Amino acid sequence: MYALGMILGVLLTGRDPTDPFFSGETGRGGLARWLRHMQQSADPKEALDSSILGDEVEEEEMLMAIRVAIVCLSDSPVDRPSSDKLVAMLKQLPTLK
């Protein structure tokens, strides 16, 4: 699950998890922590890769996918979804119905 969350995060943000953006003096603590922070920020759309942004509906779908990624990237494996729960979550995305 963690790997899938990382892949979703990379695809939706356009950021490499090994990017210096996440380390050093910035103190961002990695892609997973940064995504959680951005989700709680005033404008979570800032986390999305600007090169893939489309209309508002698509942006909302991408934000929903970011939320799925965040759950998959939970620090504790117990808090990550099972395969069945993940499928149910992905089916909630409008483009996958």
Textual characterization of the structure:
With 97 residues, the protein is an all-alpha fold. Helix content is 49%, strand content 0%.
* Largest sheet entry: none
Low-confidence stretches: none
The number of strands is: 0
Percentage of residues in helical conformation: 40-55%
Q: What is the helix tally?
A: 4
User: Averaged pLDDT, please?
Assistant: 86
Write the layout of secondary structure elements.
Blueprint: H1 2-13, H2 31-40, H3 56-72, H4 83-91
Helix pairs in contact: 1-3, 2-3
Question: What features would you highlight for this structure?
Answer:
97 residues; mainly alpha
Entry summary:
The chain is mainly alpha-helical.
